[in-house]
Amino acid sequence: MTVYLPGQRIVLIHTSDPHTRLRPGTTGTVRRHDQQANTVAIAWDDGSTLSMLLDDGDRIALATDPAAITASQHGDDRPEPASSQARDAGQPAGPAADGDAVTYLTALPPCDIHRAVRNTVVAARYDGATRQGPWAYMCDGCFMAHGVGLGLGRGQRLLLGPPPGAPDAADGSRPD
User: Fold this and answer.
1) Does pTM top 0.85 for this prediction?
2) Helix H or strand E encompassing 156
3) Whole-angstrom Cα distance, residue 116 to residue 140?
4) How distant, in Å, are the alpha carbons of 3, 21, 117 from that of 72?
5) pLDDT tens digits, residue range 156-165?
6) How far apart are CA 135 and CA 156, in angstroms?
7) Where are the alpha helices (DSSP H) in the chain?
8) Quick check: 9 and 131 in contact, CB under 8 A?
C-alpha cells in the first residue's frame, strides 16, 4: 500500500463519485492519509476538498509519476502525443501535434521564470500552469522543470506566425 504524506502533490486517476466536478488529471496536495480507513484528504487545486476512498475504487498517484499522469490524461490504452514523449525524454517538442493546445503569436513573450529568477530574457515557448500553482510563460527548459503539461486547464504551446490556413494579412486570401 502506498503511503501518502502531507504536502505531497498528487494527480487524480479515477473517482467513482458521480457528484464531484473533479476529473482525471486534476492535481492537488495531500492534507492527511488515514491508513486504517485507507482514505486520503486532499486540497484539490480547483478548491475542492473531496477525500479519496482508496478501498472504494478511487485512484490517485504521485504527480511526479509520468506514467500515472499520462494514464489520467488519455486513458491507459491511448498513445501519448509525440510532443509529450519528447518532453518526458528531456527534449523540446517539435512541430504541433494533433491534440496539442497551440496558440499562434506574432512575437514570443519572455520566459517569466528566467526573468524573475535569473534576470535574463529568454523567449517563452509555452504558456501554462506550473507545479507551484500559478501560470507562467516558460521556455523549453522551464516548462520541462516546472510545467504540468498541455491541454485544457494545463497549458499551451506558443508558435510564431499565423495558424495554418489563416487568411493572408495583406489581402485576406487564404494560402494554397
Assistant:
1) no
2) strand 155-160
3) 16
4) 20, 15, 32
5) 999 998 888 7
6) 11
7) 66-74, 82-88, 112-113, 140-146
8) yes
